[in-house]
Each structure stands twice: as structure tokens, then as C-alpha cells.
Amino acid sequence: MTSRQPSATLPGAATSITGAIALMVAAMLMAPLMDVLSKILSNRHGVSPVTITWTRFAGQALLLLIVILARGGFPALRGRHVGLNLLRGMLVGSAVSIFFIAIKYLPLAEAISIFFVEPLIVLQLSALLLGEKVGWRRNLAALVGFGGALLIIQPTYEVFGPTALLPLATATLFALYLILSRKVGQADGPLVMQFWSGVGGFAVCSAFLLAGSALDVGDLALTVPGNGFAVLWLAVIIVLATVSHLLIIVAFSRAEASILAPFQYVEIVTLTVAGYLVFGEFPSPVKWLGIAIIVGSGLYIFLRERRR
Known about the structure:
This protein has 12 helices and no strands. Helices cover about 75% and strands about 0% of the residues.
């Protein structure tokens, strides 16, 4: 799982847009690998989901700190919106933690499909928090999209209980993250933004680990990898997370969000294929209908955005 990075549009030639699309697709191919590795670590190596997230953000912050210091020293760490970027990191750290808990139990395709009501939530929050005007057509598309999510959630809830609602919580947190990102804009460079977001994610995951250990909640508690393979997979997750998010930031700096955003649905296809190949998971016909409705609603909203 990854997220869109809203930004101001930069004019450019068709080659720039093509390159941006290529970066976006590459990120959408990389992100599902992170989710697959998280599910493997949780179910086969006994590493708690929050330990995975904590390691991911710690590694991201450390990697970017080394790069930033090498390029400009400590002054390069300064940003105009450090506090807001820390808050962004806390939101995305919470979202990823919840999603990793979800995919420990839920089939990957169902979890990611429910998560992709996120653009529909962003639409509503944009009107509520930013005062943006949302017409009846996009509101209707959002309502239809939520109906598609219910087609997936209802049978999944019967099997997994409240866990089926976790991707919806993830989508809400990511939507808030994106709304805040619109406020922050691109005043700071991508490396600085991702560094401070990594610090924020590390901080909130540390709080989760402390709470999990105190309350004896296994999915939140700190667990130590028991073998070299687990350590290797954690290292791969750090690299995938850092690189994929940087690719998204660069892509959105080169092309309009309305052009790139539909390509995030590549992640549903990739994760569905991965879920089938690695875990033997495959959605039922009713859930495929729900997936189609969610994707269709999201694409319609993006098309309406381009006409504004």
C-alpha cells in the first residue's frame, strides 16, 4: 500500500508526462511487494505488524538522513513545514500500521480494494475541511463507490468480524494525510518531506509499541525477528517504501494529479495477482463487482476533476 502525493502542476512536454506515468506505475508495482512481505513476516515469521511499520519508518528516516547530510549537511534538514510534515508522518504511520494488521488476517485483494475508497473520502473531506466545491455528480459517484465497498465489506465482515473495517480506517487516515499534504504543498524538497514524515511515522509507531507491550496486545507489541530471512525482508521493505514514495513525489511534480491518480489502481491488480500466486487468495464474483464499482467511481471522480 502507498499513497498519492498531491502537488502543483508543472508544465512540461509529453515526454515529461510519459516519464511521470512510468514513475507512478513503477511505484504501484513496488508497493504491493511491501504488503506481501509484511503478510509473510506476520504470518510465517511471527513479526508483529507494528514492528514492521516501526522498522520501515526508522529505516526510511535513517536512509534519508544519510543522503541529506551527504548532500548539504545539517542545514539541509531545515524545512518550512517541519511540524506539519511530522504530523503527516504520524498519520501515514498510523495508517500503515492499521493496514499491516488488516492484511495479516484479510485477503490482500479485499483489503486493498476497501482501502481504495480513499479518493472518495478525500472528496468529502476537501469540501468539509478545505471549503472546496463538490458537485452532485461527484457526490453521487462517491456514494456509489461506498456501495461497492459494502459489497466487499459485508461478506468479509461475516468471516473476519471488525477486522474487515480496518482498511476503511486506513483509507480515512490516508485521506487526512493527503488533505494535510495539500496544505503543505511542495515548499520543502521531497527528501526533506519524506525524512520528517519518516520521523513522525517512527514516533507514532514507537507509541504503539509501548502501548502494545503495556497492554499485552500481540499485533502492537515489539517482536524481534527470529532469523536472517526476516531481517532481510524487513530491509527490503525499508528500501521499497522509501523508493516508491520518492518516485510518487517526483511523478506528481512532473504531471498533473488528475493524469497520474488513475494509475494508482494498478496496485489493486498487482496485489490481487500477488495474493493469488503467494497465498492462493482470489476474490469471489460479488467482491469483483465491488472492486469494479470502487474503481469506476474513483476514475469518474478523477475525470470530473480534470474538467474543472
